[in-house]
Design goal:
Blueprint: E1 2-6, E2 13-15, H1 20-32, E3 37-40, H2 46-58, E4 61-65, E5 68-72, E6 79-83, H3 88-101, E7 104-108, H4 111-115, H5 119-127, E8 130-132, E9 139-143, E10 148-153, H6 159-167, E11 175-180, H7 186-198, E12 204-206, E13 211-214, E14 227-229, H8 234-247, E15 249-253, H9 266-273, E16 276-280, E17 283-287, E18 296-298, H10 306-314, E19 318-323, H11 335-345, E20 350-353, E21 360-365, E22 372-375, H12 380-389, E23 397-400, H13 412-418, E24 422-425
């Protein structure tokens, strides 16, 4: 699939799609609960379907209705094949779940997913009674983990913590999940805790030792939430909000200013540029300024914003500096390199200095980019960021392998067109 986008000024209003981050968590919690839960969710994606498919393989039944899905927990099967496709959340959340169920399960997925790190999680699960045939997918898991203290590096993925937080209450033992070092993307772990609280399990956070704990007494178990409404997605709304900041105005409905999603930080970044941001109930409006100013920001706690923040920087006057990018090299693509390549292909000026924790992406902004042809690098966020860049391009933007967008936002092209984007899907 190819997107061909002529220079586009964004205008109008749009309802945010359902949060992928919340959807994963709610589906897993509902599958582990005692009774069915009705989940109201406005949209789906390949990643969400990957989690649902794996849960179905384990014995959960899903019944769809207009506007959502009923989740019927079942007796977990003792053997199953779980295809995580390309979704890191699905893999990292369900590995600990499989390890606590005590059966024999096979995990598979895409080649890129096999490159994403899981070994620290597997090592800690192995220390507590699980067995794995490999340190990367495809792999088989057997054995059964018990309660106790789990220590996980904090600088790789908060998804390790979330997976343990789903599974460990099923041990009926007191459990502690501790971060070795600062917990990156901590908001996502707190999001998991908030979902589990709706399902009757209360994890307690201790900032003194960077740990979550859950007591064995009273006996912890997941209880049906009966109904759960999945809130709007900040990470995908960010692409339209930035496009509006660079060229037009837009209102995104159905996103909460009080959300636990760390990507709500996009509004703070947009404000730094001088663009207008206003709230009305659960709708946010962004309007461009005549001149956008360069900025500095750290994306270590909101890594999914990097691609679109880099595009925003390209449309600002002066230099912008983005830090906290180390973990972006192990996403669907090496997002540092793929984003820099995308910007350069469209006429932008971006360089990378330093390495590891000292890495900095410096973008020399200007009012307009040239446009041009870029690949998606098989990364959904590159597709959407390049599309948003059309707001400041003199010529059309052509995005090859744009089908990558289906990973998180299958309806992106339609919604972009609804806001005035001049997009042809080839």
């Amino acid at each position: 699939m190819i997107y061909s986008i002529r220079p586009s000024n964004i205008s109008g209003s749009l309802s945010a799609i359902a949060s992928k981050s919340y959807a994963h968590r709610v589906m897993i919690a509902a599958a582990l609960a005692d009774y069915p839960t009705r989940v109201y969710i406005s949209s789906s994606s390949e990643d969400i379907e990957a989690t649902i498919g794996c849960l179905e393989s384990l014995g959960t039944r899903f019944s769809y209705f207009d506007g959502g899905v009923d989740v019927f927990p079942g007796t977990f099967v003792r053997e199953a094949v779980l295809d995580c496709r390309e979704c890191g959340s699905t893999l990292r959340f369900l590995l600990p779940v499989a390890a606590v169920l005590g059966g024999n399960y096979s995990f598979s997925g895409s080649e890129r997913l096999a490159e994403r790190p899981v070994k620290p999680l597997l090592d800690e699960l192995s220390r507590h009674g699980a067995f794995f045939s490999s340190s990367r997918i495809p792999l088989e898991v057997s054995g059964k983990i018990d309660g106790g203290e789990y220590v996980i590096p904090g600088n790789i993925s908060s998804q390790f913590f979330s997976g343990l937080m789903f599974s460990l209450p099923l041990t009926n033992k007191k459990c502690i999940v501790k971060a070795d070092g600062v917990l990156q993307s901590a908001d996502y772990a707190f999001m998991t805790a908030s979902v589990l609280e709706k399902f009757g399990v209360c994890w307690k956070w201790s900032s003194a030792d960077n740990s979550f704990s859950v007591d064995a007494f009273p006996r912890q178990r997941l209880l049906s939430a009966h109904e759960y409404h999945v809130e709007g997605d900040w990470s995908n709304a960010a692409f339209f909000l930035v496009a509006a900041a660079m060229g037009g105005s837009a209102t995104i409905k159905g996103i909460s200013p009080a959300s636990m999603q760390s990507d709500r930080k996009i509004l703070d970044i947009i404000r730094k540029t001088g663009a207008s941001v206003t709230w009305t109930n659960n709708s946010v409006s962004v309007c461009r300024a005549e001149i956008l100013h360069g900025f500095e920001t750290d994306v270590s706690q909101c890594p999914d914003l990097f691609c679109i923040v880099a595009v925003l920087a390209a449309g600002c006057r002066g230099d912008s500096v983005i830090t906290g990018t180390k973990r972006l090299r192990i996403k669907e693509s090496d997002r540092v390199e793929s984003t820099v390549s995308m910007l350069r292909a469209l006429g932008g000026n971006a360089v990378v200095t330093g390495a590891g924790e000292d890495e900095r992406v410096i973008i020399k902004g200007k009012s307009n980019l040239d446009g041009g042809v870029t690949d998606s690098f098989n990364d959904h966020r590159i597709v959407m960021a390049a599309a948003a860049a059309s707001a400041i391009c003199r010529d059309k933007v052509v995005i090859k392998n744009a089908q990558a967008v289906n990973k998180s936002y299958p309806g992106f092209a339609d919604d972009f067109a609804q806001l005035g984007g001049k997009i042809d899907v080839i």
